[in-house]
Amino acid sequence: MSRGRRISRLKLNPPSSEAAYKYLSSWNGKQLFHDPSNFPPLSPESFSFPPKPFSIDIGCGSGEYLCNLAASQPDENFLGIEISRRSIYQAVNQAANFNLENIHFLKADFHLLYPNLIDNSIKDASLLFPDPNYGSKNTKHRIFGTAFLDQLHPALTPGGRIKVLTDQEPFFEDMLQLGSNHPKYKSQAIARHMNATGLPYPTRFQQAWENIKRKFYYFELIKLPVH
């Protein structure tokens, strides 16, 4: 995480074995990098969901947003992807407390999951408060980029969305320009300098930034058909 982006540090609170079995998968980064074929496809069926497109939250953090969303939409399925062990443990514990049946969490680096993406499997993808990774040495670690958009496009269903939210205006403009200029997407729902995010449920970052009166920036990208 970039300097200045930390909020209160989460305690390492491992879930029970029952909760971990039900809600958590962990894919080893080195093994995933060297041979992604050793891992299942990133499809609903791989996480014991019904065979219909699901929603994913990339960098889901401690899961407040996704767990509340899953609780409000019991007929839809949700996958949270997070690299931080502390955060994903917190998310699993929340899912267990809610006794949710339609959510799962995957501890993995999304950059490494591209070979495992499946066509038309993702209804929408959320990217909420991604790390801007400022500095010339760090921008290469940004999740949002041309490769991200190229690889995610076939995995989205027709008309599927990528939802992007940040509190960093320069980062927002960089991402919006990249997404708007991409030939496979159409940008929409562009909002700048918001006092509230418009999300149905706040993320942990949103709660922290609202307390210090930061502005929020949001846009969506809609998948266009390839001719």
How would the blueprint of this fold be written?
Elements: H1 17-23, E1 24-26, H2 29-34, E2 54-58, H3 64-72, E3 78-82, H4 85-98, E4 103-107, E5 122-128, H5 146-155, E6 156-166, H6 169-180, E7 185-194, H7 204-211, E8 216-223
Parallel strand pairs: 1-4, 2-3, 2-5, 3-4, 5-6
Antiparallel strand pairs: 6-8, 7-8
Structure commentary:
The protein is α/β, with parallel strands linked by helices and 227 residues long. The protein has a single domain, classed as Rossmann fold (3-Layer(aba) Sandwich). Helices cover 29% and strands 24% of the residues. It is built from seven helices and eight strands, in the order H-E-H-E-H-E-H-E-E-H-E-H-E-H-E. The protein has helices at 17-23, 29-34, 64-72, 85-98, 146-155, 169-180, 204-211; strands spanning 24-26, 54-58, 78-82, 103-107, 122-128, 156-166, 185-194, 216-223.
Write a short abstract of this structure.
The chain has helices at residues 17-23, 29-34, 64-72, 85-98, 146-155, 169-180, 204-211, and strands at 24-26, 54-58, 78-82, 103-107, 122-128, 156-166, 185-194, 216-223. It is α/β, with parallel strands linked by helices and 227 residues long.
CATH T-level topology: Rossmann fold
Provide the succession of SSEs. HEHEHEHEEHEHEHE
Mean pLDDT: 91
What best-fitting shape do the alpha-carbon axes yield? globular
The CATH architecture would be 3-Layer(aba) Sandwich
CATH superfamily: Vaccinia Virus protein VP39
Radius of gyration: 17 Å
CATH class: Alpha Beta
Largest sheet entry: 8 strands, mixed
Low-confidence stretches: 1-5
**Terminal CA distance:** 39 Å
Oligomer: single chain
The domain tally reads 1
Major sheet: arrangement of strands: 1-4-3-2-5-6-8-7
| Number of helices in the DSSP assignment | 7
Which range best describes the helical content: under 10%, 10-25%, 25-40%, 40-55%, 55-70% or over 70%?
Answer: 25-40%
Q: Tell me the number of strands.
A: 8
